[in-house]
Design brief:
The protein is an all-alpha fold. Helices cover about 75% and strands about 0% of the residues. It is built from five helices and no strands.
């Protein structure tokens, strides 16, 4: 069941803060083995996804439903999630970048599938010429 943009903004902001604080609280656990370091990068990419969602919903609430995210918002979200992952471990930074790019690709693919408008170009009508 979908919620409106304002509610989604609040929910995704809370989830972003929870993931960030969880990454900082469990930093010793996340840096214990190579698998948990990769998991820390994955958590950073999930934080990226929720942060992009929060920014997109904030802009949809302020500027209207037809407003779309642009590159600066995506770059800002990526930088913040990379810094948060880099505060845990430097390999988390790299894996967060990889997982975030994959997440961004699939978010774009899903958005195109859901919201893209399909316009058909009318075929030219050939009329009969009378001589």
């Amino acid at each position: 069941m979908p919620v409106n943009s304002a509610t989604s903004f609040v929910l995704s902001s809370i989830l972003t803060l929870l993931i960030f604080s969880g990454m900082q609280m469990y930093k010793p656990l996340l840096t214990r083995s190579p698998v948990t370091i990769i998991f820390g990068g994955y958590l950073g990419s999930v934080m990226f996804m929720f942060f992009v969602t929060a920014i997109g919903n904030l802009e949809a609430t302020l500027f209207g439903k037809n407003f779309q995210l642009k590159l600066p918002e995506i770059v800002l979200s990526m930088i913040i999630s990379l810094i948060a992952s880099g505060m845990v471990h430097r390999i988390c930074f790299t894996t967060c970048l990889i997982f975030s790019l994959i997440t961004l690709y699939y978010m774009n693919k899903l958005s195109q599938k859901t919201y893209a408008s399909t316009t058909t170009v009318p075929a030219p009508v050939k009329g009969r010429r009378h001589k």
